[in-house]
Amino acid sequence: MRKSVLGTLLGALLATTALTAPAATAAPAAIDFSGTVALNNCSGSLVKLGSAPTSGPALVLTNGHCYEGGFLSPGQVLVNKASTRTFTLLSPTGANKATLRATKVAYATMTDTDITLYQLNTTYDAIRTSYGISPLEISTVHPTQGTAIKVVSGYWKRIYSCDIDGFVYRLKEGDWTWKDSIRYTSTCNTIGGTSGSPIEDPSGKLIGINNTGNESGERCTVDNPCEVDENGNVTVHEGTNYGEETYLLAGCLTGSAVDLTKAGCALPKP
Protein backbone atom coordinates (compact mmCIF):
# COMPACT_ATOMS: atom_id res chain seq x y z
CA MET A 1 0.00 0.00 0.00
CA ARG A 2 1.23 3.47 -0.83
CA LYS A 3 0.18 5.37 2.29
CA SER A 4 3.58 5.83 3.88
CA VAL A 5 5.42 8.98 2.86
CA LEU A 6 9.18 8.85 2.27
CA GLY A 7 11.75 10.62 4.46
CA THR A 8 12.04 14.38 4.37
CA LEU A 9 15.22 14.66 2.29
CA LEU A 10 14.34 11.93 -0.16
CA GLY A 11 10.78 13.22 -0.40
CA ALA A 12 11.98 16.72 -1.18
CA LEU A 13 14.33 15.37 -3.85
CA LEU A 14 11.61 13.32 -5.48
CA ALA A 15 9.15 16.18 -5.38
CA THR A 16 11.71 18.51 -6.95
CA THR A 17 12.53 15.96 -9.62
CA ALA A 18 8.84 15.47 -10.38
CA LEU A 19 8.14 19.16 -10.70
CA THR A 20 11.12 19.77 -13.00
CA ALA A 21 10.61 16.75 -15.27
CA PRO A 22 11.25 17.39 -18.98
CA ALA A 23 8.31 18.86 -20.83
CA ALA A 24 8.26 15.84 -23.16
CA THR A 25 6.95 13.64 -20.33
CA ALA A 26 4.29 16.06 -19.12
CA ALA A 27 0.62 15.16 -19.23
CA PRO A 28 -1.51 16.49 -22.12
CA ALA A 29 -3.14 19.84 -21.45
CA ALA A 30 -6.53 18.15 -21.12
CA ILE A 31 -5.42 16.33 -17.99
CA ASP A 32 -3.81 18.39 -15.26
CA PHE A 33 -4.36 18.76 -11.50
CA SER A 34 -7.93 20.01 -11.84
CA GLY A 35 -10.20 18.18 -9.44
CA THR A 36 -7.35 16.70 -7.39
CA VAL A 37 -6.70 17.17 -3.69
CA ALA A 38 -3.84 16.55 -1.28
CA LEU A 39 -4.32 14.90 2.11
CA ASN A 40 -1.78 14.96 4.92
CA ASN A 41 -0.47 11.53 3.87
CA CYS A 42 -2.18 10.62 0.59
CA SER A 43 -3.67 11.90 -2.64
CA GLY A 44 -7.32 12.14 -3.66
CA SER A 45 -9.84 13.79 -5.93
CA LEU A 46 -13.09 15.69 -5.99
CA VAL A 47 -15.50 13.29 -7.71
CA LYS A 48 -19.06 13.28 -8.99
CA LEU A 49 -21.48 10.91 -10.66
CA GLY A 50 -22.39 12.37 -14.05
CA SER A 51 -26.10 12.41 -13.24
CA ALA A 52 -25.70 13.94 -9.78
CA PRO A 53 -26.95 17.52 -9.32
CA THR A 54 -24.20 20.11 -8.92
CA SER A 55 -26.22 21.61 -6.07
CA GLY A 56 -25.58 18.51 -3.96
CA PRO A 57 -22.83 17.98 -1.36
CA ALA A 58 -19.42 17.48 -2.96
CA LEU A 59 -17.51 14.21 -2.53
CA VAL A 60 -13.79 13.48 -2.16
CA LEU A 61 -12.36 10.03 -2.93
CA THR A 62 -9.14 8.47 -1.62
CA ASN A 63 -8.01 5.01 -0.53
CA GLY A 64 -9.54 2.99 2.28
CA HIS A 65 -6.06 2.63 3.75
CA CYS A 66 -5.80 6.45 3.84
CA TYR A 67 -8.71 6.68 6.32
CA GLU A 68 -7.68 8.82 9.28
CA GLY A 69 -8.56 6.05 11.75
CA GLY A 70 -5.98 3.67 10.28
CA PHE A 71 -6.25 0.52 8.22
CA LEU A 72 -9.70 -1.08 8.17
CA SER A 73 -9.94 -4.75 9.04
CA PRO A 74 -10.85 -7.30 6.37
CA GLY A 75 -14.63 -7.33 6.11
CA GLN A 76 -15.00 -3.94 7.80
CA VAL A 77 -17.19 -1.32 6.11
CA LEU A 78 -17.82 2.21 7.38
CA VAL A 79 -20.96 4.11 6.36
CA ASN A 80 -21.92 7.67 7.34
CA LYS A 81 -19.26 8.08 10.03
CA ALA A 82 -18.63 11.65 11.23
CA SER A 83 -15.38 13.23 10.04
CA THR A 84 -13.86 16.71 9.95
CA ARG A 85 -10.89 15.81 7.77
CA THR A 86 -9.48 18.56 5.56
CA PHE A 87 -8.21 18.44 1.98
CA THR A 88 -6.12 20.87 -0.04
CA LEU A 89 -7.82 21.57 -3.36
CA LEU A 90 -5.34 22.13 -6.17
CA SER A 91 -5.43 24.47 -9.15
CA PRO A 92 -4.92 23.10 -12.68
CA THR A 93 -1.19 23.82 -12.34
CA GLY A 94 -0.91 22.14 -8.93
CA ALA A 95 -0.92 25.25 -6.75
CA ASN A 96 -2.77 25.12 -3.44
CA LYS A 97 -6.18 26.64 -4.16
CA ALA A 98 -8.36 26.14 -1.08
CA THR A 99 -9.02 24.00 1.97
CA LEU A 100 -12.07 21.74 1.87
CA ARG A 101 -13.58 20.02 4.92
CA ALA A 102 -15.52 16.80 5.31
CA THR A 103 -18.63 16.29 7.39
CA LYS A 104 -18.55 12.51 7.22
CA VAL A 105 -17.08 9.37 5.74
CA ALA A 106 -19.89 8.36 3.40
CA TYR A 107 -18.28 4.99 2.72
CA ALA A 108 -14.99 3.24 3.41
CA THR A 109 -13.61 -0.27 3.07
CA MET A 110 -10.45 -2.22 2.32
CA THR A 111 -12.39 -5.33 1.35
CA ASP A 112 -12.65 -6.24 -2.38
CA THR A 113 -11.59 -2.67 -3.14
CA ASP A 114 -9.69 0.11 -1.32
CA ILE A 115 -11.72 3.32 -1.05
CA THR A 116 -12.78 6.06 1.34
CA LEU A 117 -15.44 8.47 0.10
CA TYR A 118 -15.92 11.70 2.08
CA GLN A 119 -18.90 14.01 1.90
CA LEU A 120 -17.99 17.70 2.25
CA ASN A 121 -19.67 20.65 3.96
CA THR A 122 -20.00 22.44 0.61
CA THR A 123 -21.48 21.80 -2.81
CA TYR A 124 -20.03 21.35 -6.30
CA ASP A 125 -21.65 24.63 -7.32
CA ALA A 126 -20.05 26.50 -4.43
CA ILE A 127 -16.61 25.08 -5.21
CA ARG A 128 -16.98 25.98 -8.89
CA THR A 129 -18.17 29.51 -8.08
CA SER A 130 -15.47 30.22 -5.49
CA TYR A 131 -12.47 28.44 -7.03
CA GLY A 132 -13.31 27.62 -10.65
CA ILE A 133 -12.73 23.89 -10.07
CA SER A 134 -15.01 21.12 -11.28
CA PRO A 135 -15.00 17.49 -10.09
CA LEU A 136 -13.82 14.44 -12.00
CA GLU A 137 -16.69 12.43 -13.41
CA ILE A 138 -16.83 8.81 -12.26
CA SER A 139 -16.98 6.45 -15.23
CA THR A 140 -19.84 3.96 -15.04
CA VAL A 141 -18.16 1.27 -17.17
CA HIS A 142 -15.36 -1.24 -16.62
CA PRO A 143 -12.01 0.06 -17.90
CA THR A 144 -10.31 -1.54 -20.91
CA GLN A 145 -6.92 -3.20 -21.21
CA GLY A 146 -4.45 -1.08 -23.18
CA THR A 147 -6.10 2.23 -22.29
CA ALA A 148 -3.65 5.11 -21.85
CA ILE A 149 -3.99 6.47 -18.32
CA LYS A 150 -2.77 9.25 -16.07
CA VAL A 151 -2.26 8.74 -12.33
CA VAL A 152 -2.48 12.23 -10.84
CA SER A 153 -0.96 12.66 -7.38
CA GLY A 154 -2.13 15.69 -5.47
CA TYR A 155 0.29 14.95 -2.63
CA TRP A 156 3.41 14.99 -4.81
CA LYS A 157 1.91 17.24 -7.52
CA ARG A 158 3.11 14.72 -10.06
CA ILE A 159 1.40 13.06 -13.02
CA TYR A 160 2.36 9.52 -14.07
CA SER A 161 1.63 8.30 -17.60
CA CYS A 162 1.29 4.66 -18.65
CA ASP A 163 -1.23 2.11 -19.95
CA ILE A 164 -3.49 -0.47 -18.34
CA ASP A 165 -1.37 -3.62 -18.67
CA GLY A 166 -4.21 -5.88 -17.58
CA PHE A 167 -6.50 -6.88 -14.74
CA VAL A 168 -5.73 -9.04 -11.71
CA TYR A 169 -8.34 -11.60 -10.62
CA ARG A 170 -7.28 -11.24 -6.98
CA LEU A 171 -4.58 -8.95 -5.57
CA LYS A 172 -3.50 -10.04 -2.10
CA GLU A 173 -1.52 -7.87 0.30
CA GLY A 174 -1.10 -8.90 3.91
CA ASP A 175 -4.56 -9.60 5.32
CA TRP A 176 -6.38 -7.83 2.47
CA THR A 177 -7.64 -9.09 -0.88
CA TRP A 178 -8.85 -6.87 -3.72
CA LYS A 179 -10.81 -8.00 -6.75
CA ASP A 180 -10.25 -7.22 -10.44
CA SER A 181 -7.41 -4.78 -9.79
CA ILE A 182 -5.76 -2.65 -12.48
CA ARG A 183 -2.13 -3.50 -13.30
CA TYR A 184 -0.07 -0.66 -14.79
CA THR A 185 2.68 -0.79 -17.37
CA SER A 186 6.10 0.10 -15.97
CA THR A 187 6.14 3.88 -16.44
CA CYS A 188 3.58 4.42 -13.66
CA ASN A 189 6.24 3.92 -11.00
CA THR A 190 4.16 5.36 -8.16
CA ILE A 191 5.64 5.97 -4.72
CA GLY A 192 4.54 6.57 -1.12
CA GLY A 193 2.05 9.44 -0.94
CA THR A 194 0.43 8.60 -4.28
CA SER A 195 -2.18 6.43 -2.56
CA GLY A 196 -5.64 7.60 -3.52
CA SER A 197 -4.54 9.32 -6.73
CA PRO A 198 -7.23 9.29 -9.40
CA ILE A 199 -6.62 7.16 -12.48
CA GLU A 200 -7.94 9.10 -15.46
CA ASP A 201 -8.60 7.90 -19.00
CA PRO A 202 -7.78 10.09 -22.04
CA SER A 203 -11.12 11.91 -21.69
CA GLY A 204 -10.32 12.83 -18.09
CA LYS A 205 -12.93 10.54 -16.56
CA LEU A 206 -12.16 8.72 -13.32
CA ILE A 207 -11.75 4.99 -14.00
CA GLY A 208 -9.78 3.95 -10.92
CA ILE A 209 -7.80 4.88 -7.85
CA ASN A 210 -4.11 4.18 -7.27
CA ASN A 211 -3.42 2.02 -4.22
CA THR A 212 -0.34 -0.21 -4.10
CA GLY A 213 2.77 -1.74 -5.64
CA ASN A 214 5.25 -4.54 -5.04
CA GLU A 215 8.29 -2.79 -3.62
CA SER A 216 10.84 -5.52 -2.92
CA GLY A 217 9.68 -8.76 -4.51
CA GLU A 218 8.22 -10.33 -1.37
CA ARG A 219 5.17 -12.57 -1.67
CA CYS A 220 1.76 -11.28 -0.52
CA THR A 221 3.13 -9.11 2.31
CA VAL A 222 2.31 -5.49 3.16
CA ASP A 223 3.82 -3.27 0.44
CA ASN A 224 4.42 -6.40 -1.64
CA PRO A 225 1.11 -7.55 -3.12
CA CYS A 226 0.93 -10.75 -5.12
CA GLU A 227 -1.38 -11.72 -7.96
CA VAL A 228 -3.68 -14.74 -7.57
CA ASP A 229 -5.45 -16.17 -10.63
CA GLU A 230 -8.74 -18.07 -10.88
CA ASN A 231 -6.94 -21.37 -10.19
CA GLY A 232 -5.16 -20.08 -7.08
CA ASN A 233 -1.77 -19.70 -8.75
CA VAL A 234 0.33 -16.95 -7.17
CA THR A 235 2.75 -14.70 -9.05
CA VAL A 236 4.91 -11.82 -7.83
CA HIS A 237 5.91 -8.86 -9.99
CA GLU A 238 8.51 -6.74 -8.23
CA GLY A 239 8.24 -3.07 -9.13
CA THR A 240 4.75 -3.40 -10.58
CA ASN A 241 2.05 -0.99 -9.38
CA TYR A 242 -1.71 -1.31 -9.15
CA GLY A 243 -5.00 0.51 -8.77
CA GLU A 244 -8.62 -0.33 -8.00
CA GLU A 245 -11.55 0.24 -10.37
CA THR A 246 -14.18 2.82 -9.44
CA TYR A 247 -17.12 2.00 -11.73
CA LEU A 248 -18.59 -0.12 -8.89
CA LEU A 249 -18.81 3.05 -6.79
CA ALA A 250 -20.93 4.67 -9.50
CA GLY A 251 -23.38 1.80 -9.21
CA CYS A 252 -23.93 2.55 -5.52
CA LEU A 253 -24.47 6.31 -5.71
CA THR A 254 -27.75 8.19 -5.90
CA GLY A 255 -26.79 11.81 -6.39
CA SER A 256 -24.18 12.49 -3.69
CA ALA A 257 -25.46 9.75 -1.38
CA VAL A 258 -24.15 6.20 -1.09
CA ASP A 259 -27.07 3.77 -1.38
CA LEU A 260 -25.95 0.21 -0.73
CA THR A 261 -29.52 -1.02 -1.33
CA LYS A 262 -29.54 0.32 -4.89
CA ALA A 263 -30.24 -2.35 -7.51
CA GLY A 264 -26.95 -3.65 -8.88
CA CYS A 265 -24.79 -2.12 -6.12
CA ALA A 266 -21.89 -4.56 -5.69
CA LEU A 267 -19.78 -2.80 -3.04
CA PRO A 268 -19.23 -4.70 0.24
CA LYS A 269 -21.87 -3.95 2.86
CA PRO A 270 -21.51 -3.66 6.65
Task: Provide a descriptive summary of the structure in words.
The protein has 3 helices and 18 strands. It is mostly beta strands. The strands form 3 sheets. It has a 6-stranded antiparallel beta barrel. It has a 6-stranded antiparallel barrel with strand order 9-10-11-16-13-12. A two-stranded antiparallel sheet has the order 17-18. The longest helix is centred in the first third of the chain and has 12 residues, at 8-19. The radius of gyration is 17 Å and the shape is globular. The relative contact order is 0.20.
CATH fold assignment of the largest domain = Thrombin, subunit H
Specify the number of helices. Answer: 3
- Please bin the fraction of helical residues: under 10%
Which strand order do you get reading across the main beta sheet? Answer: 1-2-3-7-6-5
Strand content: 35-45%
The total strand number stands at: 18
CATH level-two architecture of the largest domain: Beta Barrel
Radius of gyration: 17 Å
